[in-house]
Amino acid sequence: MSAATQTTPTATVAAGVEFAHVDPRALIIETNVRTVADLDVDFLDSIRTHGVRTPVKAIRDAEGSLVLRAGQRRTLAAIETDQATVPVYITEAAAPGEAERIFEQMDENDARRALTGHDRASAFQQLTLLGVSASQIAKRSHHTRVTVNDALTVAASPLAAAALAKHNIPLDLAAVIAEFDDSAIVDDLTAYALEEPEQFAHRAQRHRDDRDAQVAVDALTAELATVGVVVVDRPSSEDQATPLHSLRGAAGEYGITAEAHATCPGRAAFISRGYGTPHAVDLCLDPKAHGHPSTHTSYASGGSGIATGPMTEEQKADRRDVIQGNRNWRSAEKVRRAWLRTFAARKTAPKDAAALLAYAVTECNTDLSHAAQNGHTLARTALGLDAAPRGGYGGFTGSQSTITNAIDAANPSRAQLIGLVIVLAAIEARTGTHTWRNPDENIARYLRALASWGYNLSEVEQSTLDSHEGRNNTSTPDTAADGGQDDDYDDDAISGAEVAGEEAQGANDAQE
Which of 56, 94, 275, 474 is spaced 20 to 30 A from 385 at the CA atom? Predict the structure, then answer.
């Protein structure tokens, strides 16, 4: 035995195999089929903390030297982290040994399989049951706290855990799936994780939006029921049911208040799902029978006094497309702005950022001015800066100084990134449901830049970009976007009468 080895008498090994603890620097590292050792930080941290736990394999050559046969990464990591010894299984060299070496090393690497995401999630869960905290798990397993939290979230969801076990999808996507307890949604998101991972975030956000909207509708329905209001489906243009704002009061005034209508036998409401929180629209189920004159010829006139009549089937189909497009855009907006916050944490701007910055200085004056007047709210949120206090220019004060302070404290690369975020946020702040129907050059350049920097465009964003490029519309928001406003019609409105009814309630129409 060489002077570099220390035997362990209690070790039980196979006949002809010697077990010893050896100084890793004394091992001769021969040619290995793994050409790059790839000593990543996590691996080094593990060896530094725990040492080498799995013995490496070596052969003793004719001169008595130990030649490493398997365990190159572990040995190099032990040297890198200054370990005194590593455990080694030692056999005598067999001749000829070169072919055998190659086969052994291939088998050593090919036959090894890492833990699956489900294995890891289950292990972390078992550790928490043993009283080990998430922070301790992260520290001792050398995983990030985010990874540990994701794993524990998945382990706590039977549906997400089953999807992870069956398909071994990425752990962070499985953690998103764990947000849902509907098996149909879980199946849908699992399919996206496997087949269209670039669209997963958008699909998940649409499911969140639908779920949250339904929760709000259910809560409002229950609230109305407690005060005796009958909740009905939205009336069509052919129904007698009419919103109170389209009826005359007892003195002939336009509109009837809910309080004044509280004792009417026709009292009812439907739930409107517009841009904001679902709200109740008060109705009278039969205004003629209950003595409430209409403010116009029919409900279809929407308060204008001019009967517009129901939409044609083609118009209804177009309207449904607009409704779905609006919903898709609002959902994509949440994903896009979350991505912008992640992007804003970078240390440097992308190499080609200068082109967009130069364009913005030249063509995005309205966007930048509007953002400044509003305290650069979106940029500040993305950069994690405090909200600007009210007062001063544009109703805000202190916003520029805070952002300037951040720029002054940054190195040149980070300062350029902050400037880029200000530009991106200024363009983003001017987007809305009008954007996908009326894209301009600023929006096109914005979306193209995001896509080139790693953001996955949703279907509605890609179609917006395609639409602009197809029309080659080069107008800018300085001349076009000021007139573009979000379509805040109720998302359930299909008939012309229903759309008009939303107008009478103060909805902000982006003329379609």
Answer: 275
